């Protein structure tokens, strides 16, 4: 499917840089989870999941389209059709489907290795692309 936004392949973020960004976010969220479980016991696990949902939804729906891990590694989430910002609903859908992407032997994440736009299942569901910020910088604050 051809769209109005068609970045060069070199501008699309590859597997390892996306893995690194997600790893950094995972470390941060794991630390938050440890604190929440220490304070709230078993209920802290549920709160940690809510924090993760809010974290990815909020940061990916911002004009920069970057979580903290994304920012460190220089990648960002953009609308696959326009190259612009996505809204909160699509950011939440992207986070929710990212859980599904990991459930079945990580096939949803590995899907990007066979997709010409390097899209995972959650990118496809939310109609997003992950691009290098050096090629498509976030809007100035």
Tags for this model:
141 residues, mainly alpha, two-stranded antiparallel ribbon, 6 helices
Kindly summarize this structure in a few lines.
Helices cover 54% and strands 7% of the residues.
Helix content: 40-55%
Written as H for each helix and E for each strand, in order along the chain, the element string is HHHEHHHE
Helix tally equals 6
Radius of gyration: 15 Å
N→C terminal distance? 32 Å
What's the domain count?
Answer: 1
Return residue spans where pLDDT drops below 50 for at least 5 consecutive residues: none
Q: Strands of the biggest beta sheet: in what spatial order?
A: 1-2
Helix/strand structural class:
mainly alpha
Mean pLDDT: 95
Please count the beta strands (DSSP E, at least 2 residues each). Answer: 2
**How would the global form be characterised?**
globular
β-sheet strand percentage: 5-15%
Q: Biggest sheet, in brief?
A: 2 strands, antiparallel
Structural commentary:
This protein is mainly alpha-helical. The chain has one domain. The protein has helices at residues 15-40, 43-60, 68-73, 88-103, 107-110, 121-126; strands at residues 75-79, 128-132. It has a two-stranded antiparallel sheet with strand order 1-2. The longest helix has 26 residues, at 15-40.
């Amino acid at each position: 499917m051809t769209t109005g936004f068609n970045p060069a392949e070199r501008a699309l973020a590859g597997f390892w840089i996306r893995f690194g960004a997600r790893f950094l976010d995972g470390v941060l969220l794991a630390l938050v989870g440890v604190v929440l479980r220490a304070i709230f016991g078993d209920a802290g696990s549920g709160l940690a999941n809510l924090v993760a949902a809010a974290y990815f939804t909020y940061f990916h729906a911002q004009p920069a389209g970057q979580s903290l891990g994304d920012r460190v590694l220089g990648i960002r989430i953009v609308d696959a059709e326009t190259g612009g910002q996505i809204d909160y609903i699509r950011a939440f859908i992207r986070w929710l489907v990212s859980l599904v992407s990991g459930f079945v032997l990580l096939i949803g994440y590995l899907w990007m290795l066979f997709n010409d736009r390097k899209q995972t299942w959650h990118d496809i569901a939310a109609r997003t692309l992950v691009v290098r910020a050096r090629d498509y910088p976030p809007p100035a604050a």
